[in-house]
Structure formats: structure tokens, C-alpha cells
UniProtKB/TrEMBL annotation:
Domain YjeF N-terminal: from-to ranges: 9-217
GO molecular function: metal ion binding; NAD(P)HX epimerase activity; nucleotide binding
Reactions catalysed, as given in the entry: (6R)-NADHX = (6S)-NADHX; (6R)-NADPHX = (6S)-NADPHX
Cofactor note: Binds 1 potassium ion per subunit.
Domain of life the protein comes from: Bacteria
EC id: 5.1.99.6
Name of the molecule in the record: NAD(P)H-hydrate epimerase
Tagged with keyword NADP: yes
Organism: Roseivivax sediminis
Annotated positions binding K(+): N62, D132, T170
Cofactor(s) required, per the database record: K(+)
Keywords: Isomerase, Metal-binding, NAD, NADP, Nucleotide-binding, Potassium
Family designation: Belongs to the NnrE/AIBP family.
UniProt-listed InterPro entries: YjeF_N_dom (IPR004443), YjeF_N_dom_sf (IPR036652)
Length: 217
């Protein structure tokens, strides 16, 4: 199966949207649904009943996928906390639309601080699924600053933590597999769409699991 660069992936999305076959919003909805399906396939225990999830959303469409995942997990009865590295009013396009569909109000977001993330994790029982929807194929520079709250909160996470990255783990260059800075989101499972990107071979070589899911492109 061929491996796509970020630009080739963006072109495939643009062509599909441009042809009228699908909208960006539909692709984002499909992406979110595939992330949930892949997580349940990877960790069958998650399908046993409602669980807890902490969804970390970034400023762009990767974050948009995260808002879809959060909504779908809430629809399954899960206790889902959403933290966003930006404020909802600064989200754009499809990501803004998907945030609208899941956020029930300004207080429906955890503050983007290590304390808020740690407190939420400590306040509940049972294992946590953490979803990295911070940055995807659009990342271009070190994500050390962006990741800081999560990296500071992460050690407090109880055993049984499951870490899932949407499309590309935050902190990696999709086309080279190189780290863009010092820090990365250490995903147990990365769920990507349509075709693998070069980074996914790097993740596998380091012991990460990678699922490639069709979103109808
Ligand atoms: N387009 C679609 O219909 C679909 C897209 N999918 C998902 O979308 C992402 C790609 O989304 P995109 O918005 O292009 O990029 P990201 O979300 O990865 O990044 C968003 C912006 O973040 C800024 N950025 C880049 N690096 C950093 C950093 N280190 N720290 C902070 N911010 C950063 C950058 O904007 P700037 O203006 O700040 O440069 C990015 O634009 C893709 O990965 C998929 O998850 C759907 O899956 C399918 C449909
Ligand atoms: K990500």
C-alpha cells in the first residue's frame, strides 16, 4: 500500500471535496468514527461498558477530529473530558462546527493546564483513554510548548492508561518521522486515515501500533 506525504494527503482530501463527492465535515465525521472503531478493536475491554476519556484538542482540523471522537464517546455513555489548547472562538471551519456539536457551554472544557488535567484524572475511577487530537499532518514546528500541560500531568495518570493519537502523534514530522522538538505524545495506538504517511513506519519500528482506516477518499 503506498505511503502518502502530507501534501499528497491534503490533495486527496481537496480532490474528493472539490469533486463534490464528500464535504470536509463528512470526512471529519468519518475520521472520528474510525478513531473510535479502531480504539475498540485495539482494546476490546473498552467496549465492555462506559469508560473515561480525556480528549486533547488542538487548534486545527486534527482538533476537529478530536471533538468528533469526544461526541461519539459521550453518545456511548462515556465520561469524556475535553481540553483544548485554544479557545473555541478561535477554531475555524469544520473544527469549529464539530466543537459546537459537542460542547454544551463555555464550561464544558477543561482549562489547558497540567493541574486541570491531573485533577480530572484523579477525580475519577478506572483507566483512562487519552486521545491526542492536538496536531496532525499540519504540524510544522516543535510542539514542546503545546504538549507541556499534558507532559506535566501524564505521570499522575493511573495504571491502565491507554494513549491514542489521531492521524499523527503530536511532536512528529509526518513526512520524515523526525521529532519536531524534544517532546512527543507517546501513543500506544495511532489511527491514521486513507493511507500511511512516512512517520507511521517510524512509530511501528519503535513498538507503536498503527491502524489505517478508510474514510472514503
Ligand atoms: N481537511 C479535512 O477535511 C480532514 C482533515 N483531517 C484531520 O485534519 C488534520 C490536519 O488538519 P490541519 O488543520 O491542516 O493541521 P493540524 O490540525 O495538524 O494543525 C493545526 C495548526 O496548528 C498550527 N501548528 C503547527 N505546528 C504547531 C505547533 N508545534 N504548536 C502549535 N500550533 C502548531 C498550524 O497553524 P499555524 O498557523 O500556527 O502555523 C496548523 O495549521 C489531519 O491530521 C487530520 O487529523 C481529517 O482526519 C480528515 C478530514
Ligand atoms: K494528533
Amino acid at each position: 500500500m503506498d505511503v502518502l506525504t502530507a501534501e499528497e494527503m491534503r490533495r486527496a482530501e481537496r480532490d474528493a471535496i472539490g469533486s463534490g463527492a464528500v464535504t470536509g465535515l463528512q470526512l471529519m465525521e468519518r475520521a472520528g468514527a474510525e478513531v473510535v472503531a479502531a480504539a475498540l478493536a485495539e482494546w476490546p475491554a473498552l467496549a465492555a461498558g462506559p469508560q473515561r476519556a480525556l480528549v486533547l484538542c488542538g487548534p486545527g482540523n486534527n482538533g476537529g477530529d478530536g471533538f468528533v471522537v469526544a461526541r461519539l464517546l459521550r453518545d456511548r455513555g462515556w465520561r469524556v473530558a475535553i481540553a483544548c489548547s485554544t479557545t473555541p472562538d478561535r477554531l475555524k471551519g469544520d473544527a469549529a462546527a464539530m466543537a459546537e456539536r459537542v460542547l454544551s457551554g463555555a464550561d464544558d472544557l477543561l482549562p489547558w493546564t497540567a493541574e486541570a488535567l491531573s485533577d480530572w484524572i484523579a477525580a475519577g475511577e478506572g483507566p483512562v483513554l487519552v486521545v491526542d487530537a492536538l496536531l496532525g499532518i499540519g504540524q510544522t514546528r516543535s510542539a514542546d510548548a503545546l504538549l507541556a500541560p499534558w507532559l506535566e500531568a501524564a505521570p499522575d495518570v493511573p495504571a491502565g492508561l491507554r494513549r491514542l493519537s489521531v492521524d499523527i502523534p503530536t511532536g512528529y514530522d509526518s513526512d520524515t518521522g523526525a521529532r519536531l522538538g524534544e517532546e512527543v505524545f507517546a501513543a500506544d495506538l495511532t489511527v491514521t486515515f486513507h493511507r500511511e504517511k512516512p512517520v507511521h513506519a517510524t512509530l511501528r519500528a519503535a513498538g507503536g501500533h498503527v491502524a489505517v482506516r478508510d474514510i472514503g477518499l
